[in-house]
Amino acid sequence: MDYSQLKSDIDQWAQEIGFSQVGVSDIDLTEAGEHLNRWLAKGFHADMDYMHKHGEKRYHPEQLVSGTVRIISARLNYMDTDVKPYQQALKETQKAAVSRYALGRDYHKLMRNKLKKLAQRIENEVGELGYRVFSDSAPVMEKAIAEKAGLGWIGKHSNVINPKAGSYFFLGEIYTDIPLPTDEAHDFHCGSCTACIPACPTGAIVAPFQIDAGRCISYLTIENQGAIPEHLRSAIGNRIYGCDDCQMVCPWNKFTQKSQESDFSPRQQLDDIELLELFAWTEDEFLKKTEGSPIRRIGYASWQRNLAVALGNAVTEPAIVEALTNKRDSVSDMVKEHIEWALKQHAQ
Ligand code: SF4
């Protein structure tokens, strides 16, 4: 088997399938594992106990999928550059600011389908192939793998940056048993820039490459199922699902490329919608309107909690106070406490 030829064929097939770029890494993730263990030891994973659970499997790919010798790392641009800019969304406090990756269809299934297509295409060529595909779905160190596979470097905000495409892309992996030639790990190009660190509204980037999840708005509004700490609520502003501030200020994102996937275009006008309209959704409406969207995963209570915080931070208007007051007694205790906090902001 001519593995060099196979590798360039894989590049070609990946493009045909719609990936923005693929690369190949070996499975030595020792350095990334050490970084992870230091981060865990500092307690920066907040309530994400699952970060501990799989132990060494995260940085020993052969323990997760036996026989793995290489990882094909793929990236897919997701930014719809025609939508209302995130900077603008942050300024309009009566409207919602949603992380750009979550405006359209949930990427997990889409990425996995594309990865499976690529693996099957390889299988057609080489015969039986040992493989498993992942996209944010298992203990896989996606960012470290992407960096090793030459797709970009991990910036000081901990996202992967590609010099020709910025950082607005999804990652996925194929763990495989074919000994493909590997790519060179990407060089680090943040240089002396530190723009993302002070840009974080809640100070979650405590040092370069060190994110305290317990302060990170993405964690607080998505993974976190409980209350949002009161001292961080004002800084959240109108960010109701995730946060892009560290990416927004990154100079490399002037190279952002428009996504070729129409599925990532906004649904329900989420790039330009009033907080009050979203807060009025019943649970049934929430489930229906977020079908196929990553937002559905957080559930209705977290959705209402996030909106209550954003409404508390909006400029005072009688309609906001009325909507908060009307909901106060029909929600869970957790949401009620956030609504009461929001009402207090308007009473000051
Ligand atoms: S803003 Fe600057 S320091 Fe932060 S990731 Fe981008 S280049 Fe690196």
TrEMBL record:
SUPFAM superfamilies xrefs: alpha-helical ferredoxin (SSF46548)
InterPro entries xref list: 4Fe4S_Fe-S-bd, 4Fe4S_Fe_S_CS, QueG, QueG_DUF1730
Pfam families in alphabetical order: Fer4_16, QueG_DUF1730
Keyword Glycoprotein: no
Source organism, top-level taxon: Bacteria
EC number(s) recorded for this UniProt protein: 1.17.99.6
UniProt main location, coarse: cytoplasm
Requisite cofactors: [4Fe-4S] cluster; cob(II)alamin
Reactions listed under catalytic activity: epoxyqueuosine(34) in tRNA + AH2 = queuosine(34) in tRNA + A + H2O
Localization, UniProt: Cytoplasm
Binding site for cob(II)alamin: R58, D136, V160, L171, S218, C243, D244
The keyword tRNA processing is annotated on this UniProt entry: yes
GO molecular function: 4 iron, 4 sulfur cluster binding; cobalamin binding; epoxyqueuosine reductase activity; metal ion binding
GO biological process per UniProt: tRNA queuosine(34) biosynthetic process
Family per similarity comment: Belongs to the QueG family.
Subunit (UniProt): Monomer.
Entry protein name: Epoxyqueuosine reductase
